[in-house]
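Listing S7. Sequence submitted for prediction.
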Amino acid sequence: MNRKNRNKTASLLCACMLFVCAMCTGCSSSDEGQRYAWPLATASPEDTVTQLFALKFAEEVDRLSAGRMKIEVYPNSTLGGDRDLLESCADGDIPFVVQNTAPQVSFMKDLAVFDIPCVFDHVDELREKIDDPLFYDRIGSVYTDGGYHLLGIADQGMRVMSTNRKVDTLDDFKGQKIRTMENSNHLAFWKALGASPTPMSFSEVYIGLQHTIDAQENPYEVIVSNRLYEQQDYVVETNHLPHLITLIVNDAFYNDLSQEARQIMDEAAANATAYAREMSDERIEEKKEQIRKSGTQIIELDENTRNEIREKAQPVYDQIKESIEPSLFKAYTQ
């Protein structure tokens, strides 16, 4: 085991030991309160909406419990990468995790519902769907079946495309070599548009845009924080997928809490979700302004082009529909 992995393992063990001590020495309903903070982990850097979401939740739990319930946030893969954190949360070693839905699909296949492309044109429409009680309950059941309890869903807005080739019509996607994640649904979507999707490690994207690829896709925050727009002439608001961020807790841990403690968790999560969404909107506008000032043009697709993209993407809809619960597919797309 190399030094980096040893350090990460040591940090995880330390956090887990503190968590176990907290559970042994007292819970939120005791007069003394917690002796140690419960760990909440993310694999995201600190200057992200993910971190803001996590910190706000911890702050609200502290406030609403009058300091009797404490959560310590561990960002930037301190306690492990996305897969490590999901496994540790399911096992009960780390009670809380904040992360996007993409790595969760391999644990809970029905979350591929969020890979259905171009369901919503704008983030407000997406949030309205997420917040619909019937849909939220369905998604919550997916997490419960996986051993988690879903506390809240925020986002980093929609994923957009950056490219060196202007895109005004459906034909303009043809032949574009675009970097995507290693995800069969994502690959199928770009192929359906006539593009040439190319999975690539994210660390290689900046250099790749100079030599081997024409385009990439990500939320605005990622495009700006990694300065990808410096290599691109255009950002195209394809809004093809949402970039969702979930706050989850080990299901057994949550259900072992007192009713009062659960109510505090729920209220804190609702407040943190609203805050994270507000921060996301503000940061996106700041990122867009930064892109415009650099000379990179932002293109908004017209309604006709969006409808043509949806038509081309129908095979992807069918592919995902066959792999997830039909009622969940219907609830998300209608």
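Caption to Listing S7: primary sequence and predicted structure tokens for the chain studied. Residues 58 and 71 are 5 Å apart (CA to CA). Residues 1-11, 20-32 have pLDDT under 50 and may be disordered.
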